Amino acid sequence: MSLPLAPTSALRPGAPLDPADNFQPSYRVSRERFLEKLHRLARRMPVLVDSRSLAPRGPDDETLALDFAIVGARKPKHVLVLSSGTHGVEGYTGSALQHWTLDALLPRLALGPDTAIVLQHANNPYGFAWHRRVNEDNVDPNRNFREVFDPNQCSPDYEALYDCLNPADLEPANEERRWAQITAYVEREGRRRFQQVAVEGQYKFPQGMQFGGHRQSAGTRHLVELAREHLADAQTVIWLDFHTGLGESGACELICGAPLDSPAYAFAQQIWAGEVRSSVAGESISTPLNGLLDLGLQAALPAGARFAFAFPEYGTWPPERVIRAMRADNWLHHHGELGDATGRAIKAEMLEAFRPASAEWARAIVAHGSGLIERSVAHLPGASR
């Protein structure tokens, strides 16, 4: 879908003059400014921040933490959650829209006594800080939200393509051979099948891409516990978890993992005007995936709560460039050196693949994302502007 021009609300007092400036220069700076803005906002609205730190540190030796910021009712019955950074480096986009919310939306929003906006900054702070999609254990958090893990779960095709997807070196001749194998597979089985095999989530190879883990990771447990504790009285939960890297550049698709016959799918279609696409039903640009965040979170909410969830997925670059960046990053963290020229180049490409340097792209994302948030607020009981 094409993205609209920036709504006038994106340029209200308090917001940056250039919407692209909502994008922050690093995880550390984003978190520091996020907490500072919440501190200022607390002078006029109730604010509670529950931060759950992780053992690893960031590249500047900074604390890595999941920051669950509740603005409004302490135990809300009606809540809109905006979360970022499930896939680490993709957190630049989600945090940009959280900063827009703090600067331009919350100062003019009235919340009833049972209503709250929750900003969950960095579901995967390690990946955000170190420019990885995965966490400190090489686990893809969006394949890790499950109760039972089978360490042998892996498609035979992934195993057959393992060396192509997870190269042990980046020597040009070897890479040419690997990509020839991938191309032959795509020509034989189709691009959609290759996408399914490459990204659905596997649980057998801890050093492989799309590893879902052998147990719930610390960040997964923290997020489930935060939702279970702070949303224990919730009757209405609307949740947006922002992603990048899939689809046409600048376009957005709203994706969920819920089946077509589920109440969550029906409620999401009601909230977002029929725009949500189910990955499990095959109607999305995303293929069906294992261990999805939305299904794991729904199990942590009160049984009677109405739950509408969407992954807004913003396109960046063509799929081959994105997967090449992911492959190289996986090689770097298992076989390379972060500080040498090759490592720096891989990290720069990883950032570009999921947060393009284009200011025009950034403006388009803030324009669409802020409008999406405004539409979500319009369906939140007890919220008025």
3D architecture notes:
It is a single chain. The protein is α/β, with parallel strands linked by helices and 385 residues long. It folds into three domains: 8-144 and 234-315 and 356-384, Aminopeptidase, CATH 3.40.630; 156-199; 317-354. 39% of the residues lie in helices and 18% in strands. The chain is built from 13 helices and eleven strands. The protein has helices at 27-41, 91-105, 125-130, 156-160, 162-165, 172-189, 191-199, 218-230, 263-271, 293-298, 319-335, 341-354, 359-378, and strands at 47-57, 63-72, 78-83, 110-111, 115-121, 236-241, 243-249, 252-256, 276-278, 306-315, 383-384. The strands form two sheets. Strands 1, 2, 3, 5, 6, 7, 8, 9 and 10 form a nine-stranded mixed β-sheet that branches. Strand 1 and strand 2 (63-72) form a beta hairpin. It is globular and about 65 Å long.
Which key terms come to mind for this protein?
13 helices; 3 domains; globular; 385 residues; disordered N terminus; single chain; 39% helix; two-stranded antiparallel sheet; nine-stranded mixed β-sheet; alpha/beta; 18% strand; 11 strands; Aminopeptidase
CATH class group of the largest domain: Alpha Beta
Q: Which blocks of ≥5 consecutive residues have pLDDT under 50?
A: 1-13
Element string (H = helix, E = strand): HEEEHEEHHHHHHEEEHEHEHHHE
The helix content, as a percent range, equals 25-40%
Task: Note the beta-strand portion.
Answer: 15-25%
In the CATH hierarchy, the architecture of the largest domain is 3-Layer(aba) Sandwich
Largest sheet: 9 strands, mixed
Give the radius of gyration.
20 Å
Computed structural class? alpha/beta
Q: Which homologous superfamily in CATH is the superfamily of the largest domain?
A: Zn peptidases
Distance between the termini: 27 Å
Compute the number of strand runs.
11
* Count of spatially separate domains: 3
Helical region count? 13
Mean pLDDT: 95
